[in-house]
Amino acid sequence: MSSAHYQALEPQTSDEDNEDIERRQCNSRSCTASATTTTTTTASHPPHPMVRKGGVARRRCLVPLVAGALFFVAFCYLTLSGDTRLALGLGGGAEDSEELSHHGLDGMNFRPLNETVHICSESYEDRRQFMQDKPQSEYGQLPVIYFVTPTYPRREQIPELTRLAHTLLHVPRLHWLVADDQEKCNGFMDTLLHRFGIPFTHMVSPMPSKFRNEKPAPRGVANRRAALQWLRQHNLTNGILYFGDDDNTYDLRLFSEIRKTQRVSMFPVGLIADYGVSGPVVRKGKVVAFLDSWVAGRRWPVDMAGFAVSLEYMAQYPYVNMPYKPGYEEDLFLRSIGLQMNLIEPRGNNCTEILVWHTQTKSKKLGMVRLESKYLDDRSNLGALLHNLKLMGVASTTESEGRDALISKNGKEKPHSKILS
Predict the structure, then answer these.
(1) In this structure, which long-range contacts are made by residues 195-199, counting pairs with CB atoms below 8 Å and at least 24 apart in sequence?
(2) What is the C-alpha to C-alpha distance for residues 273 and 9, in angstroms, rounded to an integer?
(3) CA 238: distance to chain centroid?
(4) Which residues of 78-111 are buried (b: 16+ CB within 10 A; e: fewer)?
(5) What is the mean pLDDT of the segment spanning 393-399?
(6) Domains and CATH numbers, the chain
(7) How far apart are CA 63 and CA 202, in angstroms?
(8) What is the pLDDT of residues 298-344, one digit of tens each?
(9) Active site residue 10
(10) Which one is catalytic: 125, 330, 345, 353?
(11) Cα(39)–Cα(44) distance, rounded to whole angstroms?
(12) Is pLDDT of 33 > 60?
């Protein structure tokens, strides 16, 4: 279509614009001459009626809009709690701001929950025939537990996930969210998770590079944030959220307990820091305080494995967050969902039983086996075995580092070349 069909609009000016133009004219030549010219122009060419009306109309529209915006901000600041104001980005009041600043919880730690979730594989099919000696059809009315497991590549990763899976195999109505801290998907892990038959979602969620050099680094935060984003994207409001690390030990009774959660349930965790335990203090069936050897100003000094949250309750708080601040992840997450002491439901026989243990496997460096590559063929099992261990991140082979691999026979060590040739 020809450009002739489009006619440019003449610029329109308001009363304020005209007055500003007149002031600038006064600065460049005599105001008397300018005034005379203006008077003559006005008399011969009166301003277009839409010019004046537009300027007045805009002023009349802007005044109530500005007033309304100021009223809304003032209302939010005065009526919302400090934690909610923090989540909304309105500021948390002097007390909260001072407290957060003291602990280094700045805007970078509180960045909005807008993670990019990359799904490697997932399955919603439950291929387990029996759980706890009952067919899965008998558990159809139970709410689903969304079990979030942050993990990262290391020598112990696959063994610990395997051990955890054999606990979860006994838990009905569970969806396992496995969030791996790496850039690319691990095909071996996909195969492993499919083999268990548990409904699962495997995603990768690497820690932002800016935090990797911190000591201690906020390990597991990006993983959990990605899982929270997945729950949000699926608009899930029915079920229970639980953060379960891959190196913990779980009593099967824990899952029956947390499935009753109405808002937020809590329970003690064993093997935590100096006291060997962290958990709520309960009086007359109500949580009144917390026992933990590292308080550090935390309002909710609990372990990540020590609470469960109803998705229906969490859905009321669209600004759910978890900060990149080691030691404060639980505290600020619970603040972001508006937790109050009277909302906490004590579990584990009024918090007298340990149903989850913070066991940790001592991490070691990747194993190295010095072996000539020509012997990694099908003349023995070693080629396939060491290949699988490399995929798991447990051990690797080399031709140049360390001692040659030794193989024993009849109690005597021999070079591998003697046995495999």
Answers:
(1) 196/165, 196/168, 196/169, 197/126, 197/127, 197/128, 197/169, 198/126, 198/128, 198/165, 198/168, 198/169, 198/174, 199/123, 199/124, 199/125, 199/126, 199/174, 199/175
(2) 72
(3) 19
(4) eebebbbbbbeeeebbeebeeebeebebeeebbe
(5) 84
(6) 101-357 (3.90.550.10), 367-420 (no CATH)
(7) 52
(8) 999 999 999 999 999 999 998 899 999 999 999 999 999 999 999 99
(9) no
(10) 330
(11) 9
(12) no
Average pLDDT of the chain? 80
Instruction: Please list, residue by residue across 320-342, b when 16 or more beta carbons sit within 10 angstroms of its beta carbon and e when fewer do.
Output: bbbbbbeebbbbbbbbbbbbeee
